[in-house]
Specification:
This protein is an alpha+beta fold. It contains three helices and four strands. It has a four-stranded antiparallel beta sheet.
Length: 92
């Protein structure tokens, strides 16, 4: 599989934004997703999202470069800290 020049790979996201919050996709759907993006303005949120499927449910991974930003996001929207090495890899 080829990559486009300059594209953020999963490994690069894990290195640059190691503080990751796993949150059910249903928790940030529609207007709630816009609210989450607005909340993250000015925070160290990665421009690329990650996701995986667990127990027939989609999980969005919000990646931050600063731990305090990830904790603030968790306090507002819930979720759980996720170590990048524990995130399921593709293909599942």
């Amino acid at each position: 599989m080829s990559r486009r020049k300059g594209e953020l790979t999963n490994a690069r996201v894990d290195r640059g934004w190691p503080y990751q919050v796993a949150l059910r996709a249903a928790a940030t759907h529609g207007a709630d997703y816009i609210e989450a993006l607005e909340f993250c303005e000015g925070l160290s949120l990665c421009p690329r999202r990650q996701a995986f499927r667990r127990d027939d449910e989609y999980i969005n991974v919000w990646c931050f470069a600063v731990e305090a930003d990830a904790l603030a996001f968790m306090a507002r929207f819930g979720g759980a800290m996720l170590d990048p090495k524990d995130r399921p890899r593709w293909p599942g």
